[in-house]
Design brief:
single chain, about 325 residues
């Protein structure tokens, strides 16, 4: 990435099962075999992993992982990660959640986020640290919890994610009809978190957002009119903020499918399939932007050209990790 003048946001844990995350730390800590949502269901999964932030052994194992990775020396360049400009920021976890409304668990979650941010900064004071949060959606609907986490002086900027289809703002059978409502709810969500950002003077990055193809189709040949309008709204908000010197500082769309060829038989990834930009347990290609999605690429290029300094260049696509 450094050779290509790119920068990475490197996340260190995961609320979800597709990279091990909470469930594997609990298994290693002796809490039994990790629960798999595809087998046991998400209610059972969420109940199980809510034990992570109150399990001292699991958190200690994760802390050792943080120390190992953040203090690592790149064996190719000989450069310490803490001195590597290819790292934009360390991120505590992908969509960290406490998965519980219990005040004790919420307090433990906030304490864990604070202590992890402090640990990262103690090893690497040169790079930014972010939470990886979805926003209030990932804080059990508790805005005070989001604020508590992001008031931490060792967390340098705030994250939010927005998923209109997943969150019920747009239905599979009426994506175009629901688009105005989805855009309105998106604006409200951004504004809600900007209120907190202003109190602490920290930027907000919408680091994940996506919108399905028209007709809830997985086919690369399907139209993307609703998605292009949704992307345009998001980008316009960032450009407006940049022009006004505001705190809505950046976005990353999800996700880049490139030249991937979708499976002709499977909605979910199977060994041998191309990667379309989503983890294997999620439908492949629903939110993907492919290299031949010319209208969406035009929307992205238009936005990046309006944000780029005079004579500068912005690359397309942009990816989170």
């Amino acid at each position: 990435m450094g050779r290509r003048d790119m920068k990475a946001v490197l996340y260190l844990n995961n609320s979800w099962e597709w990279s091990g995350g909470y469930g594997m730390y609990l298994e290693w800590a002796g809490s039994g075999k990790a629960v798999i949502p595809a087998v046991d269901g998400y209610p059972a999964y969420m109940e199980s992993v809510s034990g992570f932030v109150v399990n001292e052994k699991a958190k200690a194992l994760f802390a050792e992982h943080v120390k190992t990775v953040v203090s690592r020396i790149n064996t190719v360049t000989g450069k310490a990660y803490k001195d590597d400009p290819a790292i934009f920021s360390w991120q505590i976890g992908n969509e960290p959640r406490c998965f519980s409304s219990d005040p004790v668990v919420k307090a433990a979650f906030a304490d864990w986020m604070w202590s992890t941010a402090s640990l990262i900064k103690s090893i690497d004071p040169n790079h930014l640290v972010s939470s990886g949060s979805e926003g209030v959606w990932g804080c059990e609907g508790d805005m005070a919890l989001f604020e508590k986490i992001h008031s931490c002086p060792n967390i340098d900027y705030m994250n939010i994610h927005i998923w209109p289809y997943n969150w019920g703002w747009a239905k599979a059978g009426s994506l175009e009809e629901d688009l105005p409502y989805a855009i309105a709810k998106t604006g409200e969500y951004i504004d809600l978190h900007l209120e907190v950002a202003r109190r602490y003077g920290k930027p907000v990055v919408l680091e994940e957002f996506g919108f399905p193809r028209d007709g809830f189709s997985f086919s690369k040949s399907s139209s993307v009119k609703a998605r292009d309008k949704y992307y345009s709204y998001i980008f316009d908000r960032v450009i407006e903020s940049a022009n006004e010197g505001g705190l809505f500082a950046g976005v990353n769309f999800w996700g880049w499918g490139g030249s991937a060829v979708q499976s002709g038989t499977d909605v979910y990834w199977r060994p041998g399939d191309d990667y379309c930009g989503d983890p294997a347990q999620e439908p492949q290609g629903l939110n993907s932007v492919y290299s031949d999605d010319l209208s969406t690429l035009a929307v992205i290029r238009n936005a990046t050209s309006r944000l780029a300094p005079s004579g500068g260049k912005c690359s397309v696509p942009s990816m989170k990790n």
